[in-house]
Amino acid sequence: MCGIVGVTGNDNAVQILLKGLEKLEYRGYDSAGIYVNDLQGNDYLIKRKGHISNLEAAVGPEVHGSVGIGHTRWATHGVVSVANAHPQFSEDHRFYLVHNGVIENYKELKATYLSDTTFASQTDTEVVVQLVDHFVRTQNLSTRDAFLKTLGLLEGSSYAFLMIDSLDPDTLYVAKSKSPLLVGLGDGCNVVCSDAPAMLDVTHDFLALHDGEMVTIKPNSVEIIDQNGNAVSRKPFHVDMDPSETEKGTYPYYMLKEIDEQPNVLRKIASTYTKESGEPNFDDKMLSALNQADRIYIVGAGTSYHAGLVGKKMFEKLAHVPTEVHIASEFAYDDPLLSKKPFFIFLSQSGETADSREVLVNVNAKDYPSLTITNVENSTLYREASYTLLLHAGPEISVASTKAYTAQIAVEAVLAKALGEIKEQTIAEDFDIRQQLGFAATGMQAIIDDKGRIENIAKKYFVKAPKAFYIGRGIDQTVSLEAALKLKEISYVHAEGFASGELKHGTIALIEEGTPVVGIITQKKTAALTRSNLQETMSRGAQALTIVRQGLSQPGDTIVTTDINELITPLLSVVPAQLIAYFTSLNKGLDVDKPRNLAKSVTVE
Ligand code: F6R
Fold it and tell me: Of 17, 94, 354, 437, which alpha carbon lies 20 to 30 A from 68's?
């Protein structure tokens, strides 16, 4: 949430900042701004509402410099406006600051220290930059000491800060707690960013910052100190990513590209996590820790939580290990009763979700073993868990998650098989996951190749619909939640995913003439039941549609997917729903990749 970039020591600062912000736009897009200084006495502050393109249009050729900071905002405190956009600045325009996070005690700080200060915005961030200025002026502190003193006052807050003192402009002051931030090491210049892809044109070598650290960055030096003031030395990590991986190429939207990439992601997971013989291929230490657990706790948010619901079915069926799935934001503060030997699995595409991270901090404090399954190497959840598995899905840029969901399910499936084998469960031994992932990849491709027909379905039944339902039982019910989330978040159709048998206990009252109700039918045991629940909605005027596994199909079914093992059918049944959501949004003329009110990588709780 909110993207931050900074650079010092490069005459191309303006272009570096704008390009970086473009790459981070998925983190927030309600307003954006840059502050640039040329070290010759000229500086520029430009902020605009809306997308980065509005900001770019406002940056004229006169704007130049070698040091600067930039921000793309997802509003927390204060409405979307130019005044509330970052950089925020001190009353005397000496200090400029960008921030990702939330300052919990900003009202108290304002009342205690800044009663005489005139504020230009409604943001919590402005309090921080005004405080630095206040301590420099009233206590004669150096900028660094005033910054440190201010950091010490921010109780329980989450922040990634990047600040410039316009009187000593080639230095960037950086600090982080809970919100992600990286320092990139360039040639004669250094950069700062929320996420490595933003700066791959400048460098592939990054330093991860830890909570409580403060960093002073000049063109040729980076000095990190910890919260006790001790110097920290840290080795950079190398990001081996081709910048073109983050481009959308000839696709109109990232979401369509990412849907199309799914078959290859499954193949990649199969080749990474299984041997040619079909056996799972994981670190023995991790498997042994998992094997000792008497209960698995899967934690995630949004789509990752939905992938966890599928994981539960797989761990319970293949390994016979009781598994609970928790919404991270609920788990963090609920203090649930745990089993004697819990093992935590964190699912997170970004590896930065604040709600999930809060749970991991508590898990680590209690010394419980944990595994993060994420798409982003060196992300916070990656670094802080006992074990990690990467999704290998390639960057996911569209705000609506697609390939991360199917990748998470595929990795969980291999892991559940591995655990089931250790526990000598016949069902796991007979489950040829490598072969099944291959079948799933081929089945996915068939759905993707039929996208023209799915667009027609979207146009006919969803584009004008005020509401829609996906229903199913068991594993199909979990997919119905994800299918509905996709539709509502990018097309603004009020959609619900529902247990099909539960509909008649109240929610069926919402069915009206023409309401689309999609039955997901992939499980033999419940197929007839879901079909009869669909009939009940049709009797009340619903437009019934189906996504059905071939072996269970009947004449008149809407979308038929190929047959794969019933445990991994979500890999196929979700794809038509992703495409329905995509084409509904597209045909409503909406911005598919950047739906209203949202941002990718939710780094505030
Ligand atoms: C929905 C979506 C979100 C994320 C959620 C968790 O399409 O993208 O619901 O799944 O914010 O994000 P990660 O997986 O990065 O922890």
Answer: 354
